[in-house]
Amino acid sequence: MKAMDLLWGRSTKRSRGPRPVLTVAQIAEAGVEIADAEGLTAVTMQRVADRFGFTAMSLYRYVPGRAELICLMIDTAMGAAPVLNPTAGWRAALREWTYRLAEVSRQHPWLGQATLQARPVGPRELGWMEQAVTALTGAGLSGARCVDAVLLLSGHVRNQIQAESGIAADGGGELAAALAETLREHAADYPALIGAAADGAFGPDGTGFDFGLTCILNGIAAAMPGE
Fold this sequence. Notes:
The protein is mainly alpha-helical. The protein folds into two domains: about 5-75, Homeodomain-like (Arc Repressor Mutant, subunit A, Orthogonal Bundle), CATH 1.10.10.60; about 80-220, Tetracycline Repressor, domain 2 (Orthogonal Bundle), CATH 1.10.357.10. Helix content is about 65%, strand content about 0%. Helix 2 packs across helix 5, helix 5 crosses helix 8 (about 125-135) and helix 8 (about 125-135) packs across helix 9. The chain is flat, with a radius of gyration of 22 Å.
């Protein structure tokens, strides 16, 4: 069974073999739990099978391989798309959408890595995109530009979560301290960066995400007719 069939519930009836004792949803949820705790690389068919006391081979009756499993995990982790306020205006709606996506991505930091590759897309992930594109409908952009704008916002979230993961991994601030020391040693070569660092650059000030989001929204507005 292909990933698209599994994602969209196009199940194939089995005429032979033992009766299924697991569901595809249970398998996907187990994969999400492993990825949340240990990262995406820890997810293997055997690790998921171990959760149920099965062998990896027995799991292939439900999911044909790891690639299909990850597709299912993505859609499971995304959850239901937020329902945006249609009267709030496209800018407020997209800001809310982006922050909600960031919340989900923080809960499942492996999503950024998993969603980089070309793959089949499931109903929940498409539901998120539908809400964001709907918020832009009627604002004067073509359908293609609406989708481009939503993908740009998704990429902004991905970059933010990756940056936060890096800061978390550098809990002692060793990398930041090493960068500061390097800049001091080569101050003559990097005067602009020295000045930026003095203004708080390279630190976890928590404002970069909103600044970037505002810049993107301003860019979207500038692309609209009449702006």
